[in-house]
């Protein structure tokens, strides 16, 4: 009689211990994440085409998304044959919209007849955040860096005076070139001090040129970089004062992150 009570108790413990063991053993399902489900976007025939959730900043037709930096009037650069060309007499232009973190695609072309040397040869720039008048903000350099020597932290694909591009992927003047950029904006504490610095990853014609590069602040022509608090900002294209022929842009789109 005693025996018959004891045996079922023991076997219950054994089953329980075995089941505990089974629960502790890692399963493939333990590390599967099912939600949130990424939004579906449709993409184009090539990586040049904007995905379906992109904001089109320039598609060859007009400058409806852009204003002059100096007075916020409609941007007056030249649009012809699907191409946007810098008009140096009217100054920098910037987007009407402000952005924080984003992916940017932009194509640019140095004229085949470009002249000048160093920084004075096809100079323009993409300001990832236009945080004030003049050239304030964070510039990724646009320049003819095809067999054109200049300071390396100022050549095409540099974060101006801060980040040297990992390689020089510049094509010959006259050929279209592409920047694909991931911009992570700086964040600030209430007192204006930096919480997290800005970071940039960028590809030039498909080659990685900036690999999660950490910026030290705004990209200044003279002096040491420092940060100034901002929340979101337009993207600006530079009208540089050098006397060489103006450069062109096309197919500009952005995806907010
Ligand atoms: Mg520039």
The helix content, as a percent range, equals under 10%
Look at the structure and give the mean pLDDT.
93
CATH structural architecture: Sandwich
Instruction: Say what the CATH topology is.
Output: Jelly Rolls
Outline of this structure?
The chain is mainly beta and 257 residues long. It has one helix at residues 2-24, and strands at residues 55-58, 66-68, 78-80, 83-85, 93-95, 102-109, 124-127, 139-142, 176-184, 187-188, 194-196, 199-204, 207-214, 236-237, 248-256.
Report on this model:
- This protein is mainly β and 257 residues long.
- It has a single domain (55-256), classed as Exo-inulinase, domain 1 (Jelly Rolls), CATH 2.60.120.
- Helix content is 9%, strand content 28%.
- It contains 1 helix and 15 strands; from the N terminus they run H-E-E-E-E-E-E-E-E-E-E-E-E-E-E-E.
- The strands form 3 sheets. Strands 1, 3, 4, 6, 9, 12, 13 and 15 form an 8-stranded antiparallel sheet that branches. The protein has a 5-stranded antiparallel sheet with strand order 2-5-14-7-8, with no helix packed on it.
- The structure holds magnesium ion.
- The site of magnesium ion has 7 residues, from strand 7 and strand 8.
Topology:
Layout: H1 2-24, E1 55-58, E2 66-68, E3 78-80, E4 83-85, E5 93-95, E6 102-109, E7 124-127, E8 139-142, E9 176-184, E10 187-188, E11 194-196, E12 199-204, E13 207-214, E14 236-237, E15 248-256
Antiparallel strand pairs: 1-15, 2-5, 3-4, 4-15, 5-14, 6-9, 6-15, 7-8, 7-14, 9-12, 10-11, 12-13
Magnesium ion (MG) binds at residues 123-125, 139, 141, 238, 240.
């Amino acid at each position: 009689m005693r025996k018959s009570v004891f045996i079922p108790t023991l076997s219950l413990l054994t089953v329980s211990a075995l089941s505990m063991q089974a629960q502790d053993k890692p399963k493939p399902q333990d590390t599967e994440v099912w939600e949130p489900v990424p939004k579906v976007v449709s993409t184009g025939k090539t990586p040049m085409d904007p995905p379906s959730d992109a904001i089109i900043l320039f598609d060859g037709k007009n400058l409806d998304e852009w204003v002059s930096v100096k007075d916020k009037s409609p941007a007056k650069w030249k649009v012809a044959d699907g191409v946007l060309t810098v008009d140096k007499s009217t100054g920098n232009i910037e987007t009407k919209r402000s952005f924080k973190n984003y992916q940017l695609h932009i194509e640019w072309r140095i004229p085949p007849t470009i002249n000048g040397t160093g920084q004075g040869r096809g100079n323009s720039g993409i300001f990832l955040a236009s945080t004030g008048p003049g050239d304030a903000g964070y510039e990724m350099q646009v320049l003819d860096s095809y067999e054109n020597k200049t300071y390396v932290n100022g050549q095409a694909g540099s974060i101006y005076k801060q980040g040297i591009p990992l390689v020089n992927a510049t094509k010959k003047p006259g050929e279209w070139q592409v920047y694909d950029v991931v911009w992570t904006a700086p964040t600030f504490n209430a007192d204006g001090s930096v919480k997290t610095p800005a970071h940039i990853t960028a590809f030039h014609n498909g080659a990685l040129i900036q690999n999660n590069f950490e910026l030290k602040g705004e990209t200044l022509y003279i002096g040491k970089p420092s940060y100034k608090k901002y929340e979101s900002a337009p993207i600006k294209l530079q009208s540089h004062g050098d006397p060489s022929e103006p450069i062109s842009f096309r197919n500009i789109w952005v995806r907010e992150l």
